[in-house]
Amino acid sequence: EDKVVQSPLSLVVHEGDTVTLNCSYEVTNFRSLLWYKQEKKAPTFLFMLTSSGIEKKSGRLSSILDKKELFSILNITATQTGDSAVYLCAVEAGPLGGGADGLTFGKGTHLIIQP
Amino acid sequence: KAGVTQTPRYLIKTRGQQVTLSCSPISGHRSVSWYQQTPGQGLQFLFEYFSETQRNKGNFPGRFSGRQFSNSRSEMNVSTLELGDSALYLCASSAAGGNSPLHFGNGTRLTVT
Q1: Which residues of chain B neighbour A102 with C-beta distances below 8 Å?
Q2: Could you report the per-residue pLDDT of B34-59, keeping only the tens digit for each?
Q3: Going along A1-115, which residue ranges are E strands?
Q4: Which of A4, A41, A58, A109 has the highest number of chain B CBs within 10 A, making it the mutation to test binding with B?
């Protein structure tokens, strides 16, 4: 059974700090790893990673994938109160040439940024 | 471009009843997926539709079903509701082809009493 584990489950830091969120996975026929941010309702897409070692960056957020160690991290630098949210990691799997399976999500990291 | 639209936003039903939830994908997106989110289990995959065909299904009982129309809009139906079906039901759409991320709607909050 596919598994995605995120750590820590919750994190409280002060504004301006840098945080690193972790995601490890065990899936058959890995295709991609995705990060989402969920504040109130809809998870909003942050990054999709398919290749090892290539950092994806968007403003203060960045993410990298290690397909050998089955691991990804999401970094947020100079955190702001607006970064407070649940950050979800998900993995897409599926056989070559076939349709993708549904995303398998981790339980999320609840990040709280204190002013 | 409008995002994924789900209706209704909130729904209260009684055990044993059935419910239908609706989803309009982002314009041009042909794949629609449904997920259930609960505090205990997190986000779990229900099913995915592409070109009116169910392409994949998660590990949920047959009481959960769905369909997709020719305009890519999708509906999800839950029959014989149980208390444990109370959850946020999220619909997501993606463009056809590989390496296309899912974009989620705001969800329908279903409460079963």
Answers
A1: 33, 35, 45-48, 56, 58
A2: 999 999 999 999 999 998 999 889 99
A3: 3-7, 10-14, 19-26, 30-38, 44-49, 56-58, 61-66, 71-76, 85-93, 104-105, 109-114
A4: A41
